[in-house]
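Database export, one record per block. Field names are fixed; values are copied verbatim from the stored entry.
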Amino acid sequence: MADPAPHMTPDEFRRQGTELVEWIASYMERLEDLPVLAQVEPGWVRAQLPDHPPAEGEPWPDIVADLDRVIVPGLTHWQSPNFFAYFPGNATGPSILGDLLSAGLGVQGMLWATSPACTELEQLVLDWLLELTGLPQRFSSKGPGGGVIQESASSANLCALRDLAVRRGAEPARLRAYVSTQTHSSVEKAARVAGLAPRQLEAIDVGPDYAMLPDALARAMAADAAAGLAPCFVAATVGTTSSTALDPVPAIAEVARAHGAWVHVDAAFAGSAAVCPELRFVNDGADVADSWCFNPHKWLLTNFDCSALWVADRAPLLAALSVTPEYLRNASTDAGAVVDYRDWQIPLGRRFRALKLWFVIRHYGAAGLAAHIRSGVALGQELAAWVEADERFELAAPAPLSLVCLRHREGDEATQTIIDAVNGSGHAYVTHTRLDDRLVLRVAIGQARTERRHVEALWEQITALA
């Protein structure tokens, strides 16, 4: 008989888990002193580790020691208060503990029957999010629609797009979907996965504020319809990745409705701002959109992965994604009495993601969540004012929230020099984009640990390099 596997006992887990939690807490304390961008060369991390797996289990202290020796030097520290790249990705105490609990319970929540709490808590917290952000109750689980937690906005965009053939009943080659030139690349990828050819996804022009032009959309959809094609899907963006542009969703929806097209809104970053009543302009058009998503794992203090997707009518989504083999059949599902979230996503399996969002909402409350968002917006507005007051720089786009896009007036080379120097210093990390084919330095504010002094230090570094 083979020897039993060396499973960790509950006592060992308790002891070693406590040590690992202490390691994570210590990491949080020293984050500010670590270089934000990983300082290693390609291949360095792998070169520090053996090519072959161990024949026998290794002592736990040796495993943990390699975190500091190998892993931390190879990290870009997304939780650093000096991380201003891409968009914030907050991992806070409550959300980390919620993920720990999810892993400890080991729930597979593909069906209501496989763990009723997994499904019903998810329905609840997504209804809570509707209330916290002021989104319309037409997305509530108590009606024909409802919400689901996806891995990312990319997955949400794919789910919204995937069922378009079912909705329209048209020949696949006749389908046409529409985005703006500023729409996130995940929608283009979703179109590929959904089987659309490049010609079937049309990029609509934007205005000076980088928001989609409804008149241009109307012309494109009318021309396609006149050619015998089937306009069926429009992706609007609330807070584009490059500049936080806000597409005019009500006007876009009016154009789309004339052709019976589905309107999906990707508010991945900006949607969290709606926990502040004064920022609910980001919800404009939610009352006429067919689906809406935003990522609590960006700005709402919940660690990756946690993207909230709502639909006003779940029937088309289920028609496109529901496949029920015999081994998944059960009395509750057959009776139509429950929601099975495996029908709301591409994968079958799903983790208990609702736990971390539940922990975050209960820990911070509406007031705490709003305080975090207001802090980021205030810092963003202050930085934008500093840029406008310095004759060497200019704002490259409006800054309605906490993302500030700027460039050196002397051109791309001067801007690139600053970006390279900031990132090379290790003191901060910023990323770039291109707007009107000009290089732009992006400063994305919103990390849980970022304070005014961090933004001020970044601005001092940028101006010193000018």
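Remark 1: The longest strand covers residues 230-237.
Remark 2: The domain at 90-466 is CATH 3.40.640.10 (Aspartate Aminotransferase; domain 2).
End of record.
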